[in-house]
Amino acid sequence: MPPKIFIDDFEKTENSDYLHGVLGRSLIIATRFDSMCTTLSQAMDIKLGAFFYTNNEEFKVFYQKIISKYRTLNTSIKTFILPEEIGEILHKARESRNEIAHSLTKGLEGCIDMKIDNMTLINEIKKLITNIIDGDIIISILTNDFNKDPTPTIQALEKYKNRVLDWVISP
Q1: How far apart are CA 30 and CA 166, in angstroms?
Q2: In total, how many domains does the chain have?
Q3: Shortest CA distance to 19 belongs to which of 109, 84, 133?
Q4: What is the pLDDT at residue 72?
Q5: Residue 52 falls within a domain, yes or no?
Q6: Does a structural domain hold residue 7?
Q7: Among 28, 52, 66, 166, which is 20 to 30 Å from 155 by CA?
Q8: Is 140 helix (H, G, I), strand (E, B) or coil?
Q9: Residue pLDDT, tens place only, 107-131
Q10: Greater confidence, 111 or 51?
Q11: In degrees rounded to 5, what are phi and psi of residue 99?
Q12: What is the per-residue pLDDT across 3-27, written as a single tens digit (0 to 9) for each?
């Protein structure tokens, strides 16, 4: 018999596989948001740096420093100069991302069928993912603007939001 410090419940059920799938897809969306914020923040720094470094070697050093520098999601978001209401949406998305990445699955080792109420977990994930999608949309629009690409319509953004939520939650 293994010591109690190890997981000893490896039972899988259709329901636990569904919930693990939802948790995994939630993490994918949370990671996408984080990555998009970091990438846009780095791109903005690099574009700004191009104005200050006329020497190619100095710019290469600066560029390497920017892309290799570890940035927290909070640091990335703070680099964007945005109206307070928009910043609040991004920080709410950041907090939701942190919840998914660091807290949501605590205590859910092994077969989770008897450990949680499905609807409670699904409703919590819907709330968190909705916050992240709102942040994702803002970052996507900012990235489009940075790249001088056209801004999607409200209808396209709403459709995107619904498709992501459906992809995360649906069996």
Answers
A1: 15
A2: 1
A3: 109
A4: 85
A5: yes
A6: no
A7: 28
A8: helix
A9: 888 778 888 889 999 999 999 999 9
A10: 111
A11: -60, -45
A12: 778 887 788 899 999 999 999 999 9
User: Is residue 126 a part of any domain in this protein?
Assistant: yes
* Residue 29 neighbours by CB under 8 Å, 6+ apart: 129, 132, 133, 136, 164, 168
Domain span including residue 140? 14-104+111-169
- How far is residue 48's CA from residue 59's CA, in Å, rounded to a whole number? 11
What tokens were used for 122?
A: 């699904």
Query: Bigger pLDDT: 61 or 164?
Result: 164
What is residue 69's predicted lDDT score, i.e. its pLDDT? 66
Q: Kindly give, in sequence order, each residue whose CB lies less than 8 Å from that of residue 67, ignoring residues fewer than 6 positions away.
A: 42, 46
94 Cβ contact list (under 8 Å, min separation 6): 37, 73, 74, 77, 135
| Token representation of residue 145 | 């603007």
Task: Tell me how far apart the alpha carbons of residues 62 and 46 are, in angstroms, rounded to a whole number.
Answer: 8
